[in-house]
Amino acid sequence: DRPVSGVMMLARTSKGASRLSAQIRERTVSKRYVAAVEGRLEGGQTLTGFLRKDRDRSRIVSKGDADAKAVRLTYRSLWASDTFSIVDVELETGRAHQIRVQLAQAGHPLVGDRRYDATSAFLPKRIALHASRFECKHPTRNEQVVLSALPDDWPGPFARALSQVSYSE
How far is Cα 73 from Cα 93, in angstroms, rounded to an integer? Predict the structure, then answer.
């Protein structure tokens, strides 16, 4: 997603890219995100369902819907106020717009995500979603690679909330 910030893994060679792509297809990588969502969201939950991507928007559909793909993520609240919450999201599947759609469906759209019915503003051309951790096996060496970072450019109240978060890897 273009309006998202965070860590990325790039391969230096075609061999590395092929092996990294295989890990992503086989779902052996771990991907986590930190997000600011609208409203008070406490605790944690696993969200499951089926997603279908249309031209420029994805949506939750029934299992038998044509082109429906299973989606699953787990979130836990890191910080909450009456107006917004900071959540840690771990993807088990990785579909286009999955986090955006599933959290909006649960009544908590990402801050700034007008495409999926958010009413609040964020940074220009950005939504409050940050790829905070990516873990995989190095594509050519037999070792684990962990990339992690929290956002350092979130504005005002979001930055203050992040500073209060106890974020354990």
Answer: 7
Q: What is the dihedral of CA 57, 2, 113, 160, to 10 degrees?
A: 160
Task: Kindly report, residue by residue over 63-73, the tens digit of the pLDDT.
Answer: 888 889 999 99
Alpha-carbon gap, residue 150 to 141, rounded angstroms:
27
Rounded CA separation 7/14 (Å): 20
Phi, psi of 15 (to 5 degrees): -65, -45
pLDDT at 167 over 70: no
Own/partner long-range contacts of 114-123 (Cβ < 8 Å, ≥24 apart): 115/56, 115/57, 116/57, 118/38, 119/38, 120/38, 120/83, 120/84, 122/36, 122/155, 122/158, 123/153, 123/154, 123/155
Of 1, 67, 117, 153, catalytic: 1
Prediction pTM value: 0.90
**Annotated catalytic residue 152:** no
The DSSP call for residue 109 is: P
| Residue 164 pLDDT | 80
Q: Do the Cβ atoms of 132 and 34 come closer than 8 Å?
A: yes
Concatenate the DSSP letters of all residues of 20-85 into one string: HHHHHHTT-SEEEEEEEEES---SEEEEEEEEEE-SS-EEEE-TTSTT-EEEEEEEEEEEE-SSEE
